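[worker-b] picked up task from shared queue
[worker-b] task type: protein-ligand structure
[worker-b] ligand name resolved to S-adenosylmethionine; SMILES cross-checked against name lookup, match
[worker-b] sequence length check passed
[worker-b] input payload:
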Amino acid sequence: MILFEEYVHELESYATAALAGNNQALEGIDFTKLLNGGVGLELRRRVALEHRQQIGAFFTGEALRLSAFGPINSVVEGPVWDPACGAGDLLLSYAEKLPILPDIGDTITNWGNKLYGNDIQDVFLRAAKARLVLAAFARGARNLDERNLSLQGVFPNLLQQDSLHTPRDECPADVVLNPPFISLIASRDCEWGSGSISAAAVFVDMCLKVASPGTRIIAILPDVLRTGTRYERWRKMVAEHAEVKRVDIYGPFDPQADVDVFILELQVRHSRMLQLGQEGPWGLLNNSLQEKISSYFSVSVGPVVPHRHREEGPELAFLHSRDATPWGTLDQLAPRRRFTGTTHYPPFVVIRRTSSPSDRNRAIGTIINCTEPVAVENHLVVCKPNDGRIESCQSLLDILKSSSTNDWLNNRIRCRHLTVGAVKEIPFPYPPSPSE
Ligand SMILES: C[S@@+](CC[C@H](N)C(=O)[O-])C[C@H]1O[C@@H](n2cnc3c(N)ncnc32)[C@H](O)[C@@H]1O
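[worker-b] inference finished, payload out:
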């Protein structure tokens, strides 16, 4: 972090010059870069990826900011709170909609009454304050009457705080949020999850609890919260507390990130309730038609976790994901291992669980047609035809290969692991007839 602190120090010296009316010191500064992706770039350059992942620090770039806040009305009426504000990128989006006054002191005082932010890292808050001052300067505000303005005194509502562990009263501000995507252990009173859960989901939960009725919450969130079976209860809790106004699937957080995000806009309800049909447009594309894979196949995850399961029990044919030839048919399996858990009798189809929306095919299948039970590894989803016919497996492969399945899956689930729930729901329009 020391190298990033040096950069923040530089930002602070520019902001100090802007407040002091030392306009010459700011000649030639590229404000566009500094107020858009520049700070995120410096963070990437100066702080190792491992450390950024540990603390969940990834600043929102301009394109994503535009997608999240572009549709929002051009005038900001009430105050705005970012409980994980980082270097202030989301607050800067709001500041763009705040009025600019000729005097920089007046502008900053006015903005300071509207912008609330917290972050656990003091160095990010310092960057946020300096950038907000520079945003006012870039839009033309100047120190007109040589007032003595200090950087320490500006933006009194930007405070270093652990937002998840600071008790607070009802919050009267709208909320903007790109929370850390790290994992946390669920607290005992968490009503929607246990064990390791996403900090992003906990942040939304916390915001819903402190937000007053009518509050708007706009959040950039990992796609697993939208689609993951593990977060079904979280989605229900969200829809009980708030009306789900917008669910926009965005894609990768930025060109460097390997996590897909969506934009969620909520309006907090007056009382907690959920009426039928108000679960929200999560874009889950639940396939209520009969024609889906689960109507014709039983779908499950391969049970063998090689590093966890001891080699004991009968020796069996073993299918590892690396041996599942894409789109092929395996009539024999040479690899063997001992295993006491569930086995699968061919014929069946396995689908690789790991895939990405940028892959040519989301669900790559292989037919297994040997004549003995198989122990299937955990990176594969097993689809066993109810009619026990190889032709049904072939039909399934055709469906998996089709562009309509790719499009459907890319909307349904954007995270890297296909879930059993998503595979079960894949439309399966031409079921094999028994007479075929
Ligand atoms: C993904 S970054 C987003 C920053 C900023 N909102 C943006 O969009 O550019 C998440 C931020 O949350 C902060 N953070 C992590 N845990 C926190 C906590 N418990 N309370 C407050 N901030 C936290 C990190 O320091 C980081 O700056």
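[worker-b] attaching auto-annotations
[worker-b] The first strand starts at residue 80 and ends at 82.
[worker-b] releasing lock
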